[in-house]
Design goal:
single chain, alpha/beta, 7-stranded mixed β-sheet, 4-stranded antiparallel β-sheet, 15 strands, binds pyridoxal-5'-phosphate
Length: 370
Amino acid sequence: MTYDKFDPEGQKIQLFTPGPVYVPDWILKEFSKPNDTHRCNPYRELHGMVKKKMQKLLHTKDSDILLWTNSGTGIMEACIRNLIGPDDKAIFFPCGAFGERWANMAEECGKNAVVKQIEWGKGVSPEIVKEELSKDKYAVVFITLNETSTGIMNPIWDIGPIVKEHGALLCVDAVSCMAGIDIDVDKWGIDVVLASSQKCFALPPGLSVSSVSEAAFEKAKTVPNRGSYFDFITMKKKSETNETPSTPAIPHLRALNKMLDHILDEEGPENRYKRHAELAAHVREWAKKQGFEVFSEDGYHSNTVVTIRNNLNINVGLWVKKAIEKGFRFVDGYGDLKGKTFRIAAMGEITMAMLDEFLGVITTLLAEVK
Ligand SMILES: Cc1ncc(COP(=O)(O)O)c(C=O)c1O
């Protein structure tokens, strides 16, 4: 079997990557079901069900759920275009590649943004946020909840109330952790939280989801040039009748509806979050046993992706290649961390048995690349 060629029957490789991830057959089946159009009652019913279930998952009564036919990056740009007005200043707290990309987007959209850079491998502490917010008046704060490049999980549960005290809106990128950790939108004071389908939801890529607070919608109404496809207000208007302005990814929503039933009623959210935490802890223990160091600082370890320092100075690229030949994929470090770190993710529907099989394979291969 070769794993590095396009297979018309589908790629059979086992993914321990931070997205896209392994998608179970019972989800893939949802994509082969026939659909009606999106301007009819069956679609509106589906859209409404997904919104309700997402509100339950995210613990929000106050925020609307917007469903987007694009990857998470689209919503990241939407937050910038909709929430930063011409006279506003926003602040970003990047602690890795994805946070930096978000901050760069603000500049590309011509917005006034301050960037408080956090050293890669370190988390965004509530103290840093407090200190920065006391220096100036910011309309919006942008933070990555789970930084996929460095394996850092930031304590939004403590940061959110600080942002609220300063009267700013809070936008949170939860692309690589929503449905893998508990997110309490109303309690934490989140105005927008966004995620993509191809991570902890264990769906194929192409759909993204967000909650948007009433305060965020009110703010958006005052911001000119919000664009078209990513306009919160147009999306909100259509959301009121359980529709989207343009054609949505209907099969994807069908699959998300199925996955939400599984999360909420079969596995149970608490069990799901516990499983993710245990899988990540298991990877960290395995890494230490091999003599590696975990890249993320203590107290900020992600529960969904583990970034491991290549302190043994092995050939990471060769190791990854050898694993692919055995039918498993994990990934090198991201951007500047390529070769210096590697990443293992157990997101979505990965079990401890699947993880153990994978770790067994790469442990054997490690001896060949040392
Ligand atoms: C933390 C984080 N933010 C944003 C993105 C971009 O998401 P997407 O590829 O769905 O646009 C990713 C993708 O890996 C991510 O991990």
